[in-house]
Every structure is written in C-alpha cells, then in structure tokens.
Amino acid sequence: MDPLHRNQASLPDPCRVVTKWTGSMLQTWLLRRHSRECMRGEPTVSSSQKKIQMMAQRELEQERRERDASSAKFANDIKNLRVEDTVVHELDHSNAISAVKFTCELLGDEVALPRMRLRSYLESYLRGEMSEDGVVPATLMITSLNNMEPRKVAMETIRKYLQNILENQSEPKFRKIRMSNKAFNDRVLSVKGGREFLEAVGFEEREEDNGRVTEKYLVMNERLHSMMPDYYR
C-alpha cells in the first residue's frame, strides 16, 4: 500500500479522500518514529525505512527547488520593476465641454454663458438691483452664488439675529453685531449676499468707542426698528 496515502477502501464513497503528506510533515513523522524505536531498542534502519527516507528526501528537495525558483522570480521581478509616469490624456471632446453654455431663469434664455461667467454676470446683475428692494436680490445672492453648506449656515445665523431682535424689542444689545466677531465673519460676511441682506433689513455700519479702541458694528436702524409690524412683536 502507498505509504503516502490513507486507505480509501473503508471510507464511504461520498467521503472518500486522499491525503498527501508534504516532505516536511513526513520528515517530522520519521524523526518521531526514529526516537520511539531508539527508546524501544528496535533496529533503527530497515529497507522500508530507507525507502521512506529516500521519498522524504525527494519531497524536501522538490520543495527547496520550488522555493528557490520562486525567490529567483521575485528578485527578477523587483529588478525589472518600472514605475510609469502618469500621463493625463485630454479627452477628444474636452473643447466641446468647455463650450457648453448655461442659462438662468432670472436672466432669461437670451443670456447664455459658461458656468463661471454666468455666475459673475448674475452677481453683477443682483448687486445692481439692490437699490430697489434690497431684500429680494440679497436673498437671491445668498441662495444662488454660494455652496449649499455655507448658504445654509448663513441663513440660519441671520434668522437667529432677527429672531433675537423680534423677541427682545427693548434690548439694544441684540440690535448690534460686532464686525470683528470671528463667527460672524465665518458664517455671514464670507457668504455672498450675507452683509447685503442685513443692510437691506435695516442694519447700518457704525463705529463705536468701547473705552479702549474704536470698533465697527452693524447696528439696526432705530427708525426701521420702530416700524417693524406689530404682529412680529
């Protein structure tokens, strides 16, 4: 019987398996058997043992050759490794993309421009409309010329300012915003249309002396404050 295979005859057909021992496993088995035989005083060498030892030696030699071949291939691959420079290929239709023009419902279909030029044109148009009813063009500036997150933060901050004024009519401190305030700069002044909206609802820039330095504030105009609708009070 082949010493490298288990006996298959006694196994049920669906479960029949053949288990091959590798050279290293066979070598370990031989060493253990040799130790047991030495302890029992049995002969250490027999014809069958020599045959098994030769088979184990062949297995180990085959493993060594395969390992050396794999190492040599890896070393050769590393030696010949090249890093290619990244080449950016311009798409054939890139010129067509740059020629795409956009329109704005507010400006009408007759104004068709590339995206960034249209945004600049729209901003100039809305600023030109501020002298009429500033609240509407300022609101359109906030919603049309800014990314979603800055726009959302600015509108929430402005809403809070106005809510504080309406809920605290007799408190002058709520009608004044220090322009050097970092949060105010980050949330409102950095957004296109933010300051314009505050000015449209009655805030004016003023300088006030706080005892040490003169600072700039946006202060709600008293006359406009007194004209606020009664249902807001």
From TrEMBL:
**Which residues are in the PUB domain?**
149-222
Gene3D superfamilies hit by this protein: 1.20.58.2190
Stored CDD domains: PUB_UBXD1 (cd10460)
* Gene Ontology CC annotations of this record: cytoplasm
Record-given protein name:
PUB domain-containing protein
Q: Which organism is it from?
A: Pristionchus entomophagus
Q: What broad taxonomic lineage does this protein's source fall under?
A: Eukaryota, Metazoa, Ecdysozoa, Nematoda, Chromadorea
